[in-house]
Amino acid sequence: MLIRILGSAAGGGFPQWNCNCSNCRGVRDGSLDARPRTQSSIAISSDAERWILFNAAPDLHRQIQANPPLQPRRELRDTPIAAVVLSDGQIDHTAGLLLMREHRQPLQVYATAAVHQDLTTGLPLLSVLQHYCGVEWREIALDGALLQIAALPGIEITVLAVDGKPGPYSPFRQNPRAGDNIAFLLHEVSSGRRAFYAPGLAAITPPVRAALEASHCVLVDGTFWQDDEMIRAGVSTKRAADLGHLPQCGPGGMIEMLKSLRNDTRRILVHINNTNPILVDSGPERAQLEASGIEVAFDGMEIRL
Ligand code: MLT
Ligand code: MN
Ligand code: ZN
Question: Which-ligand-closest: CA of 86?
């Protein structure tokens, strides 16, 4: 199984276009030891030919430009991207769908019923796409059935409903439904290797813990270092919990969880907000992660499982 991190930042990217926080300013003017990052998306392949996008970021075109395996190479109009799988309906994970409207066939989009509903009502991206390439919606069920994707042969996917929030445009923002946020446990049957992808995770429930413990590589919500990080930075009055993200620090935080995993598990933080101090490559927070065996995803990172 091949995993490519196309975009490792949370919504807004890094630097965020309108943000003058010390991180964004520093990466913009080159004074900070940090690299820019595009918004959250990964691509997975089991044959190195066909790729499945897990989330479609607003930066998709730049990401394709930066990742040759995703570029057209066979026919006049062509793409190795065979389908898009959505973990939620938030703008950072879905706006890229509009950028695929030139697709030659209906776009295959895997999403839960909850996400499909949001993307045909409050944020009707899928309805709009019907007027361009068309959309073939493949429902992701939450009944425990394994999800299999034709262009990802040999991979069985277990889907987990996770705690999180739907987008602010959703009538269910304050009342999340099962299926608003999901995570994926991918099992490569031939090698027995497993990867877990959960870019949005508000809490570690027992099924999430079991999936993390079963995995050889985990790609998990790295949005915030601290619960009140955006308040401290002066950019928002919202806490990590208000946005449906588990912070890294503190009791019950992501670091504590990841430290408890088996030693040979690769632990990688994805979906990193631009206020997060772990973006500084030489910073003390990064050193603390390294001491705990935790990596910070960067755009273009490739993982071979
Ligand atoms: C989130 O996950 O909370 C998002 O990144 C917010 C956004 O896209 O604006
Ligand atoms: Mn997000
Ligand atoms: Zn910023």
Answer: 2
CB of 91 sitting under 6 A from ligand 1: yes
**Spatial distance between the Cα atoms of 76 and 297, rounded to a whole number of angstroms:** 33
152-190 pLDDT, tens digit per residue, is: 999 999 999 999 999 999 999 999 999 999 999 999 999
Ligand 3 mean position, distance from CA 14 (Å): 7
For ligand 1, say whether the CB of 301 is within 6 Å of any of its atoms.
no
Ligand 1 atom nearest the C-alpha of 243 is 3
Write out the residue range of the structural domain in which residue 105 sits: 2-11+20-304
pTM of the model: 0.98
Say if ligand 1 is within 6 A of residue 241 CB. Answer: no
Cis amide prior to 251 (ω within 30 degrees) = no
CATH at 35: 3.60.15.10
Dump the DSSP string for 136-174: EEEE---SSPPB--TTSTTEEEEEEE-S----TTSTTTT
How many structural domains is the chain composed of? Answer: 1
pLDDT tens digits along 254-291: 999 999 999 999 999 999 999 999 999 999 999 999 99
By alpha-carbon position, which residue is closest to atom 3 of ligand 1?
A: 243
